[in-house]
């Protein structure tokens, strides 16, 4: 094989979505010799042990198990090293990567982009990023009230699922036998509200033809990043527009920018009674009782979460701030004399809402007395 002839297919999707079942079906098809990289967060790689039971087809497969970390972060260097090693095997026709259920596909894709730039003679290239979607779970947790208290997990789980759906160029809608045609169409509509470009394939028990994954256009990082609903809103919306930007699907979006902090109790009360017209929300916020930490606010369907992230630069010691600004003077462009780099910047996406009403609800949560 010559340069750039080994396609890499990354399989993402949350725990239980059906990634391993999909891989089992791929191994059974005997169409090509593939290498398989399986990433599991546990110290014992359960997914790999299941795949090992597929029988004689394993003679055509080189399988690499990666454990105790995630290929989008702690195992990134090890992951790319294995990709490099596999690419030197002239008999390998494709590499399939089963990412862990909590992997962020944008980080994995970013690792590939960096690798390709640093290794121009590599034979491998990113063919596609697949998101395996449990349509039954999306129906229950993203679109409708949960069916039982046992299913009532933290909102950050469904937000991670939606993140995986937003950053892909192929969605495999699995477990379609658990929904009626009407329910499945409702799921498709809901997914199109946040991911309008990726191809959709419906299946039962991960039964998808291998050629559907390989005979397609190559993955384009910039295009995929640009057509997520959140990124579209950031790219297209002017922050001071009176009306939200509306696309051809009737989805409207806007970006809320405000330096002053939210009152934590008031903001939490808003989240508990969140407007049903909002489909997806994502951005960074801060609270008046915590001038140190950046908070990530995410909402997908009926689930919402606030997660403490890193520290605002303006909370660092003065000497560290001065050193950073010296190296990166552009930081001062958006620097506020009172609040520094602290700000609320949140993307709101939905249907049938009035921007003025949402903005009014947000300003009702602002702590005017902060500082």
Quote the average pLDDT. 78
Count of DSSP strands: 13
Shape descriptor reads globular
- Number of separate domains: 2
How far is it from the N-terminal to the C-terminal residue, by CA? 64 Å
Q: Write the CATH fold name of the largest domain.
A: Rossmann fold
Give the low-pLDDT segments.
41-47, 53-75, 146-154
| Beta-strand proportion | 15-25%
Class from secondary-structure proportions:
alpha/beta
- Rg, Å, rounded: 22 Å
List the helices and strands in order.
EHEHEHEHEHHEHEHHHEEHEEEHEH
Name of the CATH architecture of the largest domain: 3-Layer(aba) Sandwich
Q: How many H/I helical runs?
A: 13
Q: Under the CATH scheme, which class of the largest domain?
A: Alpha Beta
Major β-sheet profile: 7 strands, parallel
Share of helix, binned:
25-40%
Strand order of the largest sheet: 3-2-4-1-5-6-7
CATH superfamily of the largest domain: P-loop containing nucleotide triphosphate hydrolases
Describe the protein's architecture and organization.
There is one protein chain. The chain has 13 helices and 13 strands. It has helices at 19-28, 46-51, 76-87, 105-118, 135-143, 155-166, 181-192, 210-214, 221-226, 229-236, 264-272, 318-327, 355-363; strands spanning 6-12, 34-39, 61-66, 94-98, 124-134, 170-174, 199-202, 245-246, 252-258, 278-287, 290-300, 303-311, 344-350. The longest helix has 14 residues, at 105-118. It has 2 domains: 6-226, 3-Layer(aba) Sandwich (Rossmann fold), CATH 3.40.50.300; 238-363, CobW-like, C-terminal domain (Hypothetical Protein Yjia, Chain: A,domain 2, 2-Layer Sandwich), CATH 3.30.1220. The strands form 2 sheets. A 7-stranded parallel beta sheet has the order 3-2-4-1-5-6-7, sandwiched between helices. Strands 8-9-13-10-11-12 form a 6-stranded antiparallel beta sheet. Strand 10 (278-287) and strand 11 form a beta hairpin. Helix content is 33%, strand content 24%. The protein has 371 residues and is α/β, with parallel strands linked by helices. Mean pLDDT is 78; it is low at 41-47, 53-75 and 146-154.
């Amino acid at each position: 094989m010559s340069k750039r002839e080994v396609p890499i297919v990354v399989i993402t999707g949350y725990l239980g979505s059906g990634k391993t079942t999909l891989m089992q079906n791929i191994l059974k098809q005997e169409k090509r010799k593939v290498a398989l990289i399986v990433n599991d967060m546990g110290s014992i790689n359960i997914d790999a042990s299941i795949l090992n039971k597929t029988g004689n087809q394993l003679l055509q497969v080189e399988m690499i198990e990666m454990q105790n970390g995630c290929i989008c972060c702690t195992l990134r260097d090890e992951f790319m090293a294995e990709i490099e090693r596999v690419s030197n095997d002239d008999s390998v026709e494709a590499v399939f990567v089963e990412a862990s259920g909590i992997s962020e596909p944008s980080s994995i894709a970013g690792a590939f982009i960096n690798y390709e730039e640093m290794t121009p003679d590599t034979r491998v290239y990113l063919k596609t990023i697949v998101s395996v979607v449990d349509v039954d779970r999306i129906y229950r947790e993203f679109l409708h009230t949960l069916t039982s208290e046992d299913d009532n997990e933290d909102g950050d789980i469904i937000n991670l699922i939606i993140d995986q759906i937003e950053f892909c160029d192929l969605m495999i809608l699995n477990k379609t036998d658990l929904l009626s045609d009407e329910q499945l169409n409702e799921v498709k509509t809901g997914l199109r509200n946040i991911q309008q470009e990726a191809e959709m394939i419906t299946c039962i028990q991960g039964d998808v033809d291998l050629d559907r994954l390989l005979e397609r256009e190559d993955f384009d990082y910039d295009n995929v990043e640009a057509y997520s609903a959140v990124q579209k809103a950031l790219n297209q919306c002017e922050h001071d527009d009176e009306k939200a930007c509306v696309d051809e699907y009737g989805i409207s979006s806007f970006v809320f920018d405000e330096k002053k902090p939210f009152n934590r109790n008031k903001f939490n009360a808003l989240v508990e009674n969140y407007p049903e017209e909002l489909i997806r929300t994502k951005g960074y916020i801060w609270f008046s009782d915590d001038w140190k930490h950046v908070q990530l606010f995410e909402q997908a369907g009926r689930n919402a979460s606030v997660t403490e992230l890193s520290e605002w630069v303006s909370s660092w010691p003065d000497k560290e701030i001065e050193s950073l600004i010296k190296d990166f003077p552009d930081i001062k462009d958006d620097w506020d004399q009172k609040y520094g780099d602290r700000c609320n910047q949140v993307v709101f996406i939905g249907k049938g809402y009035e921007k003025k009403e949402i903005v009014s609800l947000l300003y009702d949560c602002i702590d005017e007395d902060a500082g």
